[in-house]
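Dear U.,

Please find below the material for section 3 of the report. The protein was modelled together with fe (ii) ion; I have listed the sequence and SMILES used, followed by the predicted complex structure.
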Amino acid sequence: MPIMPWSDMLSVGVASIDEQHQILVGILNELADSLQAGIDDWDESVALTKLVDYTESHFAFEEGLMRRVGYPGVDAHEQEHRLLFQQVAELMTRSTAGERVGTQALLVFLRDWLTTHIMGTDRALGLSLNRMGMR
Ligand SMILES: [Fe+2]
């Protein structure tokens, strides 16, 4: 059972965003699998680097889209994206400083953040894009 199974509840009603979210969730599940299999420490994990890189490009996509259509919630939405990176960077710093930050804690944090963000902030964006005729 993946740590974050995809379900239609996670759909925001815009195909391009949904596709990227599915890839993102897939990489998170991959990360959970590799960590549970004990393949690598999360602070030097290949899957974590992949997740961070993909998240960065996905956020850039959403932010570019919001700016292009003049979405009024763009600043608050971008702020949430920035905050996630700060929190992940903080976890990484604590881990490299020798503190034992459990892999389970990291995975649960990422899953919960992603679920809350997609079902709240991204869904609001999706509804707004739908009203502009975007599917
Ligand atoms: Fe977002």
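For the text of the report, you could mention the following: Residues 69 and 132 are 9 Å apart (CA to CA).

Regards,
Y.
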